[in-house]
Amino acid sequence: MRIRIALTSLIGIVMLLESTPSISQTHNYLRKEMDMMECKIEHLEVAMASIIMEISKDQQEFLSRTKSKFEQFKKRYDGKRISYCLEKYINAELDFTTPGNRGIGRISEYVPRFGAFFRKGLSNMSEVDLSKLYEIVQDVILRGYLVHILFIEESVRDSAISSGEELYQKWIPGIYSSDSSEVDENMMTMLSLCSNSALETLKDFINSHKMKGGGFLAKDRTDEIVYYYPIAGFGLRIVETRGY
């Protein structure tokens, strides 16, 4: 419930601070030479398995339908197109070398990018741990992506955009300018439910690495940052199937 409330309220708060965002920023964090993983169907299968575990606790009626939809989706999935979008977005979020706190899709610093907020912790992190962090953030985003497929689409839709670059350009501006009033309350609850374990894994990673964000006496913005990742994934699928 706490996550659902946070997801709903955060969008409304940022709407007061954000207008049409620019995507001219192109961040690449220090270890940009690392080969980030392609978002393969196996990564979505892991996310799907976690979602099934979450919804099976109190949403048994969805199980057979969601499994069938996922099998349909697997036949249509374009890993290169989605990987292009996720790699650019996640690398931008983990950028700890570019000065300033603002990330792509924002015109203010109310929701700072992850890499800026946790700059010190990331700058001391090994490549292995950075790769693990990338994987965790990707999983959070994929939860939102799959929620749209499983619970919004009556039948699995084909992509309306063939280019990863075009999809990325159309996706980014909507992440931090979403209107929560357009999202059904039950769907927001489902988005929160399906993202819960991934968000907890991300927070556990932050805590286990003793990452402190924002500097001395700064307000903790962790929730503001990470709760937008499932929303970003949900929005990615909207743009992919709608074409705008």
Please tell me about this protein's structure.
The structure is a single chain. The chain has about 240 residues and is mostly helical. It has one domain (about 1-240). Helix content is about 60%, strand content about 0%. It contains 11 helices and no strands. It has helices at about 1-15, 40-55, 65-75, 80-95, 115, 120-125, 125-150, 165-175, 185-210, 220-225, 230-240. Helix 2 (about 40-55) crosses helix 9 (about 185-210). The longest helix is centred in the middle third of the chain and has 25 residues, at about 125-150. The protein is globular. It starts with a helix and ends with a helix. Mean pLDDT is about 85; it is low at about 10-35.
Q: What string, H for helix and E for strand, traces the elements in order?
A: HHHHHHHHHHH
The major beta sheet can be summarized as: none
- What would the principal axes of the Cα set say about the shape? globular
Instruction: Give the overall average pLDDT.
Output: 84
Q: In total, how many beta strands?
A: 0
